[in-house]
Amino acid sequence: MANQATQVIHISKESNAATVAELIVAAVRERREVEVLAVGAAAAGQMMLALANARANLSRDNIMIVFTPFFAEVEVNGLATTAVRMQINDLRS
User: Which residues does residue 89 pair with via DSSP β-bridges, in sequence order?
Assistant: First the structure.
């Protein structure tokens, strides 16, 4: 579960995976953790592309990250729906 310091990045099917990856990298470098939230299959696909890009970018600097997936109930246009939430943590000690 996100604490007050954890940044949550919301992804839609229109999100640019490279831009989201840059946001993830910046958040991991600054806060060492971030969460990404995606509603829908297309958004989840963009999330996975962004995570793969972020992991590759961070690994160049020997920063390893781990992803922990969760389901979350969110409200979209007044209707409850299920989202995929990915918690990303930096493994540096």
Answer: 33, 66
pLDDT value at 3 more than 80: no
pLDDT tens, residue by residue, 45-71: 999 999 999 999 999 999 999 999 999
- Helix, strand, or coil (residue 43): helix
Domains parsed from the chain with CATH numbers: 7-90 (3.30.110.20)
Backbone angles phi, psi at 8, to 5 degrees: -115, 125
Going from the C-alpha of 16 to that of each of 11, 63, 66, the distances in angstroms are 9, 23, 22
Question: Within the chain, what is the greatest distance between any pair of CA atoms?
Answer: 43
Contacts by 73-76, CB closer than 8 A, 24 or more apart: 74/37, 74/39, 76/39
